[in-house]
Amino acid sequence: MSDFYKKILDGNKKWVESKISQDPKYFEKLAEGQSPPLLWIGCSDSRVPANEVIGAQPGEVFVHRNIANMVVHSDMNMLSVLDYAVNVLKVKHVIVCGHYGCGGVKAAMGNDSIGLIDNWIRHIKDVYRHHHHYLDSILDEKERFDSFVELNVKEQVYDLAKTSIVQGAWKNGQELCLHGWVYGLSSGIVKDLEVNLCGNEDLDSVYQLKF
């Protein structure tokens, strides 16, 4: 058994002990069920743990993660998570959270072939294509990269709003708001991109935005 593998098993035991020392019934209460108010759609990057970023406890955040925090309408994994979160757990907020320095977004800015992931990155490249006039006008490469990260998050929020799941919730008068954030790896601070959609009237206003 490798030292690292043993370390994470030992880490689990220490974590359990610390929780029980604070509350002997911690895990008993946690096992009773979940009613999180939030669904987090984030990047798979190991440096962006959803619960820790917002200081949430287990049971407070329902999480879906993939490369570059994408909302792809043919992704049955994402749609299944979204459906369960909205229609069963009745979450009131969905946050799409990207992060500066995202490897998936960076890869989509180039033409190198990485392998199987090229098929996934194609969806990110579509975002660049939609906004290429604006992005190509940014001369500073880092600024262009950061802007692309932000635009990608915004587009995923808009695509999320167009899913039949979110549309159905809004049609039924369910309280549900969508938000777009970007996390700063070097600061730990999230930036609210002020994309807050709580109904189709908000989505309609999106098409009037200029980037």
Automatic annotation (TrEMBL):
Keywords: Lyase, Metal-binding, Zinc. SMART domains: Pro_CA. Its EC number is 4.2.1.1. Gene3D superfamilies: Carbonic anhydrase (3.40.1050.10). Zn(2+) binds at residues 43, 45, 99, 102. It comes from the Bacteria. It catalyses: hydrogencarbonate + H(+) = CO2 + H2O. PROSITE patterns: PROK_CO2_ANHYDRASE_1 (PS00704). Pfam families: Pro_CA. Belongs to the beta-class carbonic anhydrase family. This is Carbonic anhydrase 2. It comes from Flavobacterium endophyticum.
